[in-house]
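Field log, afternoon session.

UNIT: design team B
ACTIVITY: writing a sequence onto a fixed backbone
BACKBONE:
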């Protein structure tokens, strides 16, 4: 994060998202301000809180992708939640605190992965020793049955302790292991039997956290059940490395680091915020919507949420809310919640030029995806510029004349365009046809009904 300027952040986002410069600038500034706040003196740092962002724009214009790519760029804990999933306290459903619990869980996975990487070499060494214990077991000592019966088995001289790691047979197997000559050999391995979580047992809104804690408590009290599996040496090595890494990691340290990471660097993307906005006086289900806003408010303002990893303060978590706001307006949100999203950016509807760029420019653009998919069958697709231009033109027109679903319209058009090719590809290759050119005539032929009637009712996602 410290090495990326706002301009560089925008340039990185340009690799995946076309257009929407205002939104990219807003998130880049918010991210850089977070880094700047970390550099402030302690007495001032606590007073500098993130400026949350409200993105306004129709579906498919890049709201979620901007937030997701931003979090990936800086390796920050990130979760995407829909505001419609939450219900007011007292209703059946998820409570708003669960978004923070999910964020901390994401941070725990990130920290654990980092710690696992740090102890990877040591875990690999320990796993090899355990493999050698299985491949070169210690010979069982024969005991005098009469001596055991009369209780004088221990009176024999204690055996001299030997360093098993240097025994000739063990060293021979170690060299073969290192050379990879035993990878396919099947061995019997004793592994912990992880019970499946009791999904749905605690589904009430206020019981989510209690259910997690109770399940953890019960699993910690019960002894680990072990079962035997027959696996190859290669598979056993991975299992043992994972077990040894878990032994070397201090979970208390992981929990503390994860909570701090979530508090200082966490990003929560709150989608569909417009669906809980209420116009004027409300009754019926709308009461729950306004209640959801009231419940979200303390989380966004800054409060402490109890999780199984400890209390988490939400004061410095960056919240990015988004919504289409077709039927509602940002002013329909309760005033207190509006005040917690001071930065508002409006994402523009996509035009023909944008669709052309989306089809070709991003790192894993749609055209590149379809080419790669059909190359696996041995069929090479060649998209002419005129074909790409025609697809983009159709996407723009249909979005104007029916529902505007942004870039998702391209998925619809390309699936319809390549439906027959995708179905016939194996037979085409078997008949010796390994290349196919997609030009404007092909596009018009395959999409002539859509082009003629502009009726996409059967293809709208």
């Amino acid at each position: 994060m410290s090495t990326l300027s706002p301009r560089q952040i925008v340039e990185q986002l340009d690799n995946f998202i076309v257009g929407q410069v205002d939104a990219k600038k807003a998130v880049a500034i918010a991210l850089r301000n977070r880094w700047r706040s970390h550099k402030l003196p302690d007495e001032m740092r606590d007073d500098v809180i993130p400026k949350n962002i409200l993105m306004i724009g129709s579906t498919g214009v890049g709201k979620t992708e901007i937030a997701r790519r931003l979090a990936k760029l800086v390796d920050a804990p990130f979760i995407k939640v829909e505001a419609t999933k939450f219900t007011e306290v007292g209703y059946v459903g998820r409570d708003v605190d669960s978004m923070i619990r999910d964020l901390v869980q994401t941070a725990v996975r990130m920290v654990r992965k980092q710690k696992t990487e740090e102890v990877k070499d040591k875990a690999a060494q320990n796993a090899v020793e355990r493999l050698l214990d299985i491949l070169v077991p210690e010979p069982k000592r024969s005991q005098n049955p009469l001596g055991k019966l009369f209780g004088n088995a221990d009176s024999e001289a204690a055996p001299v302790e030997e360093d098993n790691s240097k025994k000739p047979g063990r060293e021979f197997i170690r060299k073969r292991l290192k050379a990879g000559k035993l990878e396919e050999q099947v061995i019997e391995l004793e592994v912990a039997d992880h019970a499946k979580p009791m999904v749905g047992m605690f589904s009430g809104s206020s019981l989510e956290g209690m259910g997690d804690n109770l399940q953890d408590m019960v699993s910690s009290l019960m002894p680990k059940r072990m079962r035997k599996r027959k696996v190859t040496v290669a598979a056993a090595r991975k299992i043992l490395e994972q077990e040894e890494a878990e032994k070397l990691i201090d979970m208390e340290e992981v929990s503390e680091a994860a909570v701090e990471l979530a508090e200082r660097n966490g990003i929560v993307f709150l989608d569909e915020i417009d669906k809980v906005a209420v116009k004027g006086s409300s009754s019926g289900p709308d009461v729950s919507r306004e209640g959801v806003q009231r419940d979200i408010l303390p989380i966004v303002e800054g409060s402490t949420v109890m999780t199984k990893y400890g209390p988490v303060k939400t004061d410095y978590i960056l919240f990015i809310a988004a919504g289409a706001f077709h039927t509602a307006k940002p002013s329909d949100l309760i005033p207190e919640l509006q005040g917690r999203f001071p930065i508002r950016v409006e994402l523009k509807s996509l035009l023909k030029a944008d669709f052309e760029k989306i089809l070709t420019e991003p790192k894993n653009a749609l055209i590149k995806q379809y080419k790669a998919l059909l190359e696996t069958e041995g069929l090479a697709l060649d998209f002419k510029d005129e074909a790409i231009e025609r697809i983009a033109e159709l996407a723009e027109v249909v979005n104007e004349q029916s529902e505007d679903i942004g870039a998702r319209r391209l998925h619809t058009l390309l699936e319809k365009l390549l439906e027959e090719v995708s179905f016939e590809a194996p037979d085409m290759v078997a008949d010796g046809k390994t290349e196919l050119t997609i030009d404007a005539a092909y596009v018009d032929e395959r999409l002539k009904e859509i082009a003629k009637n502009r009726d996409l009712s059967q293809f709208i996602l």
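LOG NOTE: Residues 285 and 377 are 51 Å apart (CA to CA).
NEXT ACTIVITY: expression trials, pending approval
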